[in-house]
Amino acid sequence: MLDTNYTNNFSPGTCITLAFLMTLVAFAIMLGNAVVILAFVVDKKLRHRSNYFLLNLAISDFFVGVISIPLYIPYTLYNWDLGDKLCTFWLIIDYLLCTASVYNIVLISYDRYQLVLNAVSYRAKQTEILKIVALMVAVWVLAFLVHGPIILVSQSWKKDWKECEPGFFLVWYIIAITSFFEFLVPVISVAYFNMYMYWSLWKRGSLGRRQSHPGLNSPDSSNDCGHSFKCRPFSRTSLPELKETEVPLRSEKQRRKSSFLHSFRTQVNTCTIASKMCSLSHSHSVTHQREHLELLRAKKLAKSLAILVGVFAICWTPYSVSAIVLSDKHPKPYWYEIAFWLQWLNSFVNPFLYPLCHKRFQKAFLKIFCMKKKTILSQS
After folding, report:
1. Residues sharing a CB contact under 8 Å with residue 152, sequence separation 6 or more, in sequence order
2. 3-state secondary structure at position 327
3. Which range has the top average pLDDT, 31-40, 56-65, 77-86?
4. Which architecture does CATH list for 4-214+286-379?
């Protein structure tokens, strides 16, 4: 945070401008995440495993705009003394919300990792509501344990230090430990999920290309099958001619009848085999197309997760590094403040990285806007 001497360097006009911009960011964070929460409430089709984790992320990001930024604006711009109790409350809530947002990203990444690698078992877990809720609650518990206890203990370490910053900022190695659990472990986990998914998809794609049969999977395979194994009406002219040297064991009529039955059975067997081959070819083609569609879907999820890793690293790396480097320096430079704000901007970007890009959420948003239009028209 900024200390008292640092904030006095701003002119009144600059303070008003910065307060307006900060309020605008807080409102954008609230609005973006509120739409996600409302879409989840309105559309029941969104209530499955992965979207519950998106809801948990939206809740943590929403309260960043409701609590963290509004209390920070008067403190940093107008030198508002929060007091010990309010300062401790704000620090715990802010670190809890930011860490919960990070852990929710890890949970979403792990969920997509399970979807790509174990699709069958993943579908069986869709209805396990108790496990889903347990994972959501575990995110908040772990997020509190990372910073909550050390903030409560370290507040007594501050003597004449009037800044609303955690007391453990006086000890660099405690910052390093908390940054390890808050940033380094999550970013390594998300990167691992992403790289393993890409490797699995590449392996699956190369294996599918080797096992595929162009003749069976080609668009004209069914037509070729029909032409190649067409069952023509049986005619007596197609009967094989008897050899003149054959000893007549039966009468001429019996020989013709026996030869006719033999040829008829051969023709029926040929048609049966041909129809089975055609059905097998068709089923193989449908299965191959289904696997191809699932592979494309998995690749899309992996790409979105790769974007997530990049944005998460950009938003959190500067602050995690600067907090350790500048732990004993007061006042903090401008670039520390920019790095601090990047964490909150991640809460603004998250709704666009996740739900707002999904077709199901987009349909739910349209449904919400249509409901609003109908209510406005009915009132007018």
Report:
1. 88, 92
2. coil
3. 56-65
4. Up-down Bundle (1.20)
